[in-house]
Amino acid sequence: MSKLITSISGLRGVVGKSLTPEVVLRFVPSFVRLRGGGPIVIGCDGRPSGESIMDMLRSTLRLCGANVIDLGMVPTPTVQLEVEHWSARGGIVVTASHNPAEWNGLKFLNSDGVFLDADEHAEFHRLVEENDAKWVDHAALGTRRVVSDALKRHVERVLATAPIDISSIRAHNFHVVVDAVNASGSEIVPALLREMGCTVVPLACDGSGMFPHPPEPLPIHLAMLGEAVRKHSADLGIAVDPDADRLVLYDERGLPFGEEYTIVSAVQSVLISMPDASEAQVVVNLSTTRAVDELCARFGAIVSRAPVGEINVVKAMQETGAVVGGEGSGGVILPAVHAGRDALVGIALVLHALARHGGTASLFRAGMPEWVIRKSAYAILGLDASEILERVASEYASARIDVRDGVRLDLEYGWAHLRVSNTEPLLRIIAEARTEEEADALLARVANAALGDHGVAG
Predict the structure, then answer these.
(1) Which of 3.40.120.10, 1.20.140.160, 3.40.1010.10, 3.40.1160.10 would CATH assign to domain 154-366?
(2) Given this model, what pLDDT does residue 8 score?
(3) Which residue of 141, 406, 435, 439 is surrounded by the most CB atoms within 10 Å?
(4) pTM summary value
(5) Catalytic: which of 30, 97, 269, 376?
């Protein structure tokens, strides 16, 4: 039996096992109580189980007296924008993000269209534990409004946002291959690109929700994207995850840009467009490449780091007045559009930067600070997680140490971040250095300091 995974951004599980109708009937009425009623905006990422769960959402919300604004299959950032547009009480996205097809889940948004913060999350789960659904009689049932123009509004919002220069992008007539894993990005990503004057080769954009490969946009899963870029002599390859909040790039040679360099490209695009970027604020999470820091130093911009999790980055951006931010997994946040990760924003910023650069994607990438990142996970069943983290902090006492989210060690030659999973008996370790050899060696040293002979890859 698989386990239901809950986090600050929502929940996910295997459909029919850990994610069941009973789960929907526990969480959704509690969310309505948390938000004080409706309207509630809903959408799904397109995977096969999504429509059945949407049916449950529609019925459950209406039986709780909440009006439903139904977007159908759309990206998570589209739902976020529509919560704002309709002045809704909140939003629910049916998605398991990058998990395989047998998974699905629910992401919960507040009235600002952002994920619940720590306080809201704690209150939400108190209500879930209380499990006291408030049903209404026939006269008080909520209504359902079907919305068909949300994607168009999303594209228009991105196109109208500075610093994105649409005219310069159109002048370059970029040739782009798109792998939307046949999910929620299938229509909107090609539509955005065509509006920016691009020639589009849709590779996995049929909107069927049937993934042609594992949906997490990692190089091991994206061989056909690289091949298609080469076959069509394209300028760029684009991959998004099922709910289109993560963006991964391939250059004109059909080679991966590196997922960490999506956010580096976006930050450069914003800073280079500012008349004076000195002291401009940028926020990334503790697991994001140091290339962001090095790039920002060229402009005199200031980098702050936040614990992992979109809402943590968003709150830090709001507190600092950041002009751009995000996460190294391919998540770009441009507050001028919305306070949330958005692959469309990332695409527009990257094309803006490429148009300004004037060269190929590989030459653009070559001009960025070079760092090599390594990621691994280790089984720690039966071990004391807090003791592990304390041991590493003690071993590296001379490093600059951040303990807001596990332990991050900043060293002269690189950095490492150790986090204990909230849902599995795993220790996740990320290490970064200038070369592959140095990154591998740093990861091995930190893992040994943490686990010694207990270090078994998870």
Answers:
(1) 3.40.120.10
(2) 83
(3) 406
(4) 0.95
(5) 97
